[in-house]
Amino acid sequence: MRALSVTFSNTVQLGIPVVTALFGTAGLTVHIAIVSLQSLVLLTTATVLAENDLGGGRSRWARVVQTVRRSVVHPVVLPILLGLGYNATGLPIPGVIDDVLATLGAAVIPLSLVTIGLSLQLYGVRGSVRPAAVMSFGKLVLHPALVFAAAWLFGLHGLPLVVAVLCAALPTGANVLLFAGRYGVMQAETTATTVLSTFAFVVTATGWLIVLSPAMVT
Questions:
Q1: Angle, vertex CA 102, rays to CA 201 and CA 110, nearest 5
Q2: Residue % of the chain over a pLDDT of 70
């Protein structure tokens, strides 16, 4: 859970409007690609690790089947796989379906805020502030710094570099909280990290934009 807290960014509710406002369609194209890969890689890996840890007395085959099912039948992973599959067909999205999806998408942010608020009410933050502060520092400072270093090492530059680092600099995403609830572990700390990193992002985002400003003009 702590690994997810310091690596899984709030790329949809916060990331999409921020990147769109700053970099327009060009930046959003890069960002959406990162969103898809982040969810597929991190949530699938975390699910495999969690299912393996909770194997209990089940046989190896039963464990494998359960892990595959939970990795694919997931509220984030499955829609991404279906979307990629449909995109590969080259077919347009029917207007009626597109309107329904747009309406559902508009409900994402308020529903996420309600979920976080309910989690705060249920679990509280007592005893979780210190670890949440550490996790928030890792998410908002260390994670983007490592991404910046890796991007520079592999020769990434310009807009892709800026969007990748800014994506890493986003606060912890609400999906981490849902993952904690799915397995009933560290809900209080995860909730506190999500809230604290979101508030702190107001400050750290400015710092990262200053650091990345030279790359924005190249």
A1: 40
A2: 84
pLDDT over 90 percentage in the chain:
32
Q: Which two tokens stand for residue 17?
A: 């409007």
DSSP character string of the chain = -HHHHTT-B-IIIIIHHHHHHHHHHHHHHHHHHHHHHHIIIIIHHHHHHHHHHT-TT--HHHHHHHHHHHHHS-TTHHHHHHHHHHHHHTPPPPHHHHHHHHHHHHTHHHHHHHHHHHHHHHH--TTTHHHHHHHHHIIIIIHHHHHHHHHHHTT--HHHHHHHHHHHTSPBPHHHHHHHHHHT-SHHHHHHHHHHHHHHHHHHHHHHHHHHHHHHT-
Asked whether 116 and 191 are in contact (CB, 8 A), the reply is yes
27-32: average pLDDT = 92
